[in-house]
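Re: weekly structure request thread

Next one in the queue (477 aa):
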Amino acid sequence: MQNSINIKSLLDFKTRVWIYLLSFCSIIFLQTFCTNVCPYIDGLQHNQLFRNLFIVFLLQLIYREFLYTFFNESKKNLSIPRQAYFLSIISWVLAGLSAFILHNILYPDFPMSSHFRIFSSYLTLGAAILAQLEYIIFEKRYKELSKDIVFTIFNEKISQRIIETFLIFTITPIITILLIIGRYNHYKVIDSQVTLEVFYIGLLLIISAVILAIAFGKILKEDTKIIINNIQNIENGKYENTSIINRPDELGEISYAMRNMSSSIKDGINEIESLSDEIINTQKEIIYTMGEIAETRSKETGNHVKRVAEYSKLLALKLGISSDEAEMLKLASPMHDIGKVGIPDNILNKPGKLTPEEFEIMKTHAQLGFDMLKHSSKAILQIAAIVSNEHHEKYNGKGYPRGLKGEDIHIFARITAVADVFDALGSDRIYKKAWEDEKIFELFNSEKGEHFDPKVIEAFFHSLDEIKTIRERFKDI
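Done, posted below.
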């Protein structure tokens, strides 16, 4: 994060060399610059002028290092490069004040305007142009340090940066030209009228630059906002709300690319959803098929598992279970007897009554089904494992395989037990004929609170019309 980078880490040896080299090179330029803007400076010897500039250069380095040390940690709402940029501007302003004071002491016979011209040269060249160059160096160094950082705070505007640079490189040369013309006006080389005309033209250019900069910044801000909104719409899944910026530059290209990307993401999501639906439907078919395999082995029809599934979902909804969970039960309940695939045919399809020994083997299908399904991490198969293991448990605790009692039996298993017994008793089996509904209803009433959960039985009787409709829709042919 940004707080882990400070001015000290930003300004390593290499960065300092570049900055001080720029500052030192400015001495050579300032030597010429000052003689051009100040009519009295050109009367000094070169060694005198260079000495004065070198003293101010050393002072500027001292100011800079002091500021870097005192304002080492990042300040609120300022990035480290921008903070270093402001410190650089301050150091150049202080250097200009030092030059003003030094020349005022060394050359008291110079007019005050001459000292102000020296001060202005440090503002225009140092605090304006050189500070901008240093800003680029700071940003380059910061990118190296922060390459592994993910930014979460964006409190600076590129439009503001562009406007600053635009105005600096417009105003600075105009001020410099006016200073030079003022010098030659002092020598009567240029008429004062020319100075006024250049001043008016310069003022007009500055006003125009300000207006253009503000207008340009506003347009850039609006277009940048569109791009940010596009990104937010993509993040929020509103892929159709991405907009194009009609401009023939990088921002227009970015907006066009974002719209294409948004369209591709939307198409990809639709394809994934389609595949997901296909996978879910395939899972349903596999589950039904596995349930039908178990029923087929016991000479029962495949429609049994479909009816049990529909009954179970209906009863779950009547008991206040959410629609999602009821749907999960519907998908899982067809596998309630999957363990029967492990029961020998001579027991599974015996037409007569099972012996006690054979019944014990038959009862193992509940545990077999659980063992087959329990290792899956899929929610449907986890529910199927529970239903397979507990749908023969009885509410009074006399069921199998574990003798669970009351609400210790999972609600899904209690529901499936009623659905399974109702359909099994109402269907022909190899060992019996289908029961009449009234006989089944008598059994349910007598076994309420014994074999079956009373709440599930009540839900069953309240849903008789819907249950009969399901039975008719999936009746055996």
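The mean pLDDT is 81. The CA atoms of residues 135 and 378 lie 57 Å apart.
Next request, please.
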